[in-house]
Amino acid sequence: MKTQNLPKIILSLLVLLLIMGYFLKDNLNNFISEKIKKTSGTEAIISGEQWVDSLFNYTKNGKNFEFTLLQFKSNGCTICKQMEPELEEIKSIPEKNVNVVVLNILNSNSQNVMRYFGISAVPTHLILNKQGEEIYRKYGYVPAKNLMIRFRK
């Protein structure tokens, strides 16, 4: 009798682990991101900080944007491709005044920025405020309407 229940117990445990993994994926992604930031060298941090400050600190550089939406993507990523119309929708709303920037993780110029932000998976979406400070982070597919909610002063 006990050996008949063993496959059911194992299957139940596997299903439970899958469900837990699904709901805890953001926590795991954030944990890995923090580890990447901590292990990044000083050069990557300074380089990333200078890049963000020069391009996305609109109070300093005088550009007329309120927010920046950074998306880190890869060419072979299916979810990244699904996000393209969502990003276009955000770009097409002029009153939001959002600078949408897509960075390919395979581009060597993006490596220090990835380390600076601790990017561990794609697609990762970051929203920066007018001062270039991160105010929102989300991994995976995010509908445009969910991102636009974040563009509030």
From TrEMBL:
Question: Sorted alphabetically, which keywords does the UniProt record give?
Answer: Isomerase
Superkingdom as given in the UniProt entry: Bacteria
Taxonomic path? Bacteria, Pseudomonadati, Bacteroidota, Bacteroidia, Marinilabiliales
What is this protein's name? Thiol-disulfide isomerase or thioredoxin
The record, for Pfam families, names:
Thioredoxin_2
Q: Reply yes or no: does the keyword Methyltransferase apply.
A: no
Residues covered by the Thioredoxin domain: 30-153
Family matches, as InterPro entries: Thioredoxin-like_fold, Thioredoxin-like_sf, Thioredoxin_domain
Alphabetically, the GO molecular function entries are:
isomerase activity
Q: Which organism is it from?
A: Mariniphaga anaerophila
